[in-house]
TrEMBL record:
InterPro entries referenced in this protein's UniProt entry, alphabetically: Ca-reg_mRNA-binding_domain, CSD, CSP_DNA-bd, NA-bd_OB-fold
Transmembrane residue ranges: none
SMART domains in the cross-refs: CSP (SM00357)
Organism: Hirondellea gigas
A molecular function (GO) term: mRNA 3'-UTR binding
Protein name: Cold shock domain-containing protein CG9705-like
Length: 105
């Protein structure tokens, strides 16, 4: 394999590495102004870092990304969760779960 030339530029990773998505202030305010919703994890792919929540009221399944899960645990199918809804940019036509807490696993 050919050796890549060294540009002399050293890359620095942030410490600690940021694992949460940063949202604009307005998007975060929208999420925090929405009430908390209860649901159950329908599916979650650890490898891809995302899955879906089925709200307890039976409405349409909601997308969730690992960066929106609070705490150290990764959701599993059947876990009961509490979350807030936030529109998915850029079109803001669909919703996603944010500020998710696993309450019963």
């Amino acid at each position: 394999a050919a050796k890549q030339p060294d540009s002399g530029v050293k890359l620095q990773l942030p410490s600690p590495i940021v694992t949460r998505r940063t949202r604009t202030l307005s998007t975060n305010q929208i999420a925090l102004s929405n009430p908390q919703v209860m649901g159950k994890i329908k599916s979650f792919c650890r490898a891809k870092g995302h899955g879906f929540v089925t709200p307890l009221d039976g409405t349409v399944d909601i997308f969730v990304h690992i960066s929106d899960v609070e705490g150290e645990y990764i959701p599993r199918e059947g876990d009961e969760v509490r979350y807030r809804l936030c529109p998915i940019p850029p079109k803001r036509e669909k919703m996603q779960a944010t500020h998710m807490q696993i309450i019963n696993f």
